[in-house]
Amino acid sequence: MAETYDIVIRQVRLRSRPGELVQVGIRAGRIAAIATGPLAGKVELDGEGNLVSASFVDAHLHLCKVYTFPMAGDEALQRYTGGSMGQAMSAIELAAAVKDRYDESWIYPNARRAVLEGLRHGVTHVQAFADTDTRARLEGVKALLRLRDELRGVVDLRVVAFPQDGLLRDPGAEDYVRQALTLGADVVGGIPWIEYTDREAREHVDRMLRLARQFDRDVAMLTDDAGDPGLRSTEMLAEATVREGWVGRVTACHARAMSLYPEPYFRRLVGLARRAGLAFVTDPHTGPLHLRAPDLLEAGLPVALGQDDIADAYYPYGQHNMLEVAFLASHLLGRSTPQQMEQLLDMVTVQGARVLRLPDYGLEVGRAAHLVVLEGATVPEVLTRHRPPRYVISHGRLVAENAETTRWHGQIGA
Ligand SMILES: [Zn+2]
Q1: Segments making up each domain of the chain, as ranges
Q2: Which residues make Cβ contacts (< 8 Å) with residue 237, sequence separation at least 6?
Q3: What is the percentage of the chain residues whose pLDDT exceeds 90?
Q4: Tell me: the pLDDT tens digits for 209-247?
C-alpha cells in the first residue's frame, strides 16, 4: 500500500524546476517527499500550478512599536525620511516620547496583530526588536516574550533586547538589557552610532558583546543609520566580533551610511565583515539611503530584507508582507532582471534563514515543513502580485489559507 502523508500539496512548481509540476508530501512536521508522481495525503491541497517556496523570514522588525503612528505624530517621520537622513538622530529622540506611555497591556495585542498579519502572509520566523531602556523599561520585552511563548510551534519569534537610545547617552539602559536577558530575551541588541563620540560608540559595542558572551546570545545591532559617511560603527562591530571570538553570531542592521562611503573604504569593510562572518539586514523602504546589498551578497555575506517598521514613527505603512518588502526593494535598489528577482526572493527566505542561523530551514526533503504556496507560477509573477499565499504551512501544519475573489456585475467581466 502506498505511503500516506499528513498533507500533500499537489501540482506545484519549484523555483529550481519551474517547467515541472510536483507533489510535496509532509509528515510529522517535515518535508517527507518531493515527487513528480502521485502522493496520497490525509489532507490534499491543490496548488493549481503555482510556485511553492520555503516560508518567509523577517529578519528585522521593531515589533514593540507597531501601530503606534497615531500616538507618535508625523514630526519624527519627516526627520527620519527627509533629505539625506541628516536628522535621523533627532527623529529617534522625538519618536522616544511614545515610550513614556509604554505598557505591556497595549503592546501585546498590537504585536500579536502584526505577527498574525505576517503569518497570514507566510512569515513564520521573525527577529523582533523590543526597546529596552530607561523610558521603555521592560514593557516591550515582556509583551514580546509572552507572545513568543504563546506562539511557539506556530511562529518562531526571536526577541532582541534593544537599547534604542544608546547606553552611554542613557545611563541605566544596560541594566535593563541585562534584566531582559535574564527574563529570556534571545538576542543582544545595540545602536552604537547614536552615541555622541566614536570612543563611546566603541564602548557601546564592547559592553553589548560582553553581555552576549556572558549570556551566550547572538547579537543584532543597528549600525550607521544616518546620512554621514564618517560613521564607522559597522567597522567597530566587525572588529569587536573578531576580537571577542563571536564570529558568525553577529548581525548589522540598517548600516545605511555605507552608501556614502568612498569605494576603497567600502572594500576594506567588506573584507573585515567577511573575517567577522557578519550578517546584514536591510529595509530599503524605510529610509532614503540603502545598504549595498548586491555587493555584500556578491562577497558571500548573508544579507536579508526586513519589514523594519509597521505604522510607527519611522514608517507609516507595512502589512508584514515580505513579498511587498521585496517588491519595494526591487524598485528602490534598481533590481528587476529575472536573476535579480530570484535574489530578492532569496533575501526574504534562505538569506533570512542564514542571518537567523536557522538550521532546519529550506525546501528540501528532511527539513522542517515551513512552506507557502504562492500566487503565481514564476518569480516575476509572484513579485508582481505580491499577494498573500494560497496556503501557509508552519511546522508541518496548515495554518492559513487565502483566497482572492472578484464578483463582476453586469457585462464587464463576461
Ligand atoms: Zn530598524
Answers
A1: 4-54+361-401, 56-356
A2: 190, 192, 205, 219, 221, 223, 250, 252, 276, 278
A3: 88
A4: 999 999 999 999 999 999 999 999 999 999 999 999 999
Length of the chain: 414
> 240-262 burial, b for 16+ CB within 10 Å, e for fewer?
bbeebebeebbbbbbbbbbbbbe
How many A from CA of 186 to the centre of ligand 1? 17
CATH 3.20.20.140 fits 56-356, yes or no: yes
Distance from the alpha carbon of residue 295 to the mean position of ligand 1, in angstroms: 21
Q: How far is the CA of 308 from the centre of ligand 1 (A)?
A: 5
CA-nearest of 138, 185, 212 to 204 is 212
Residue-wise pLDDT tens digits, 316-343 = 999 999 999 999 999 999 999 999 999 9
Name the residue among 160, 158, 159, 156 with its Cα closest to residue 125.
156
Distance (angstroms) between ligand 1 centre and the Cα of 221 equals 9
Q: Which set of grid coordinates corresponds to residue 326?
A: 521585496
Question: Rounded to the nearest whole angstrom, what is the distance from the C-alpha of residue 230 to the centroid of ligand 1?
Answer: 20
Please state whether 44 falls in left (phi above 0), alpha (psi between -120 and 50) or beta. beta
Tally helices (H) and strands (E) across the chain: 14, 16
What CATH homologous superfamily does 4-54+361-401 map to? Answer: Urease, subunit C, domain 1 (2.30.40.10)
C-alpha 229 – ligand 1 centre gap (Å):
19
